[in-house]
Amino acid sequence: MSARSKARKRALDVLYEADIRGTSAPDVLASQAERRLDSGDPALNAYVSELIGGVESNRERIDELLSTYSMGWSLERMPAVDRSILRLAVYEVLWRDDIPDAVAISEAVGLAQDLSTEESAAFVNGLLGRLSDIKGRLGIEPEVILEPAAKQDELMAGESPSP
């Protein structure tokens, strides 16, 4: 599993915990980072923070898009894990030009297959594919990423950079 895949899973854990507990994802992330530091575990991959920050800063628009394009599913009706997977993947598909859409979608579908139901994986795939197809018409400006933190982490760890 690549460093970015691990970071996505960790970010998903943070988003899911925040959703279930009704707290902010940055607070959950800070708490997890502090626990890791206290226990002597390695620091979280910087890409986790990038993902959490990106989802949180665009959360209102992400939720609006999910509500609009999820056809028959309100945001509140979606299972919390699916909602968290979709928030994470929509951020990567629409705001991160350094991540190919196919990679973000594939990773999200894989997470849904591992953590939710077969139906969820198909739903995630369809919804993200639809948003990817129309993203040019949504008027969203991708974030400017000078040097993705995950690539810095991978290079420092001696790993090959991943998409």
TrEMBL record:
<keyword id="KW-0889">Transcription antitermination</keyword>
<keyword id="KW-0694">RNA-binding</keyword>
<dbReference type="GO" id="GO:0005829">
    <property type="term" value="C:cytosol"/>
</dbReference>
<dbReference type="InterPro" id="IPR006027">
    <property type="entry name" value="NusB_RsmB_TIM44"/>
</dbReference>
<protein>
    <submittedName>
        <fullName>Unannotated protein</fullName>
    </submittedName>
</protein>
<feature type="domain" description="NusB/RsmB/TIM44">
    <location>
        <begin position="6"/>
        <end position="132"/>
    </location>
</feature>
<dbReference type="Pfam" id="PF01029">
    <property type="entry name" value="NusB"/>
</dbReference>
<dbReference type="GO" id="GO:0031564">
    <property type="term" value="P:transcription antitermination"/>
</dbReference>
<dbReference type="InterPro" id="IPR035926">
    <property type="entry name" value="NusB-like_sf"/>
</dbReference>
<comment type="similarity">
    <text>Belongs to the NusB family.</text>
</comment>
<dbReference type="GO" id="GO:0003723">
    <property type="term" value="F:RNA binding"/>
</dbReference>
<keyword id="KW-0804">Transcription</keyword>
<dbReference type="GO" id="GO:0006353">
    <property type="term" value="P:DNA-templated transcription termination"/>
</dbReference>
<keyword id="KW-0805">Transcription regulation</keyword>
<dbReference type="InterPro" id="IPR011605">
    <property type="entry name" value="NusB_fam"/>
</dbReference>
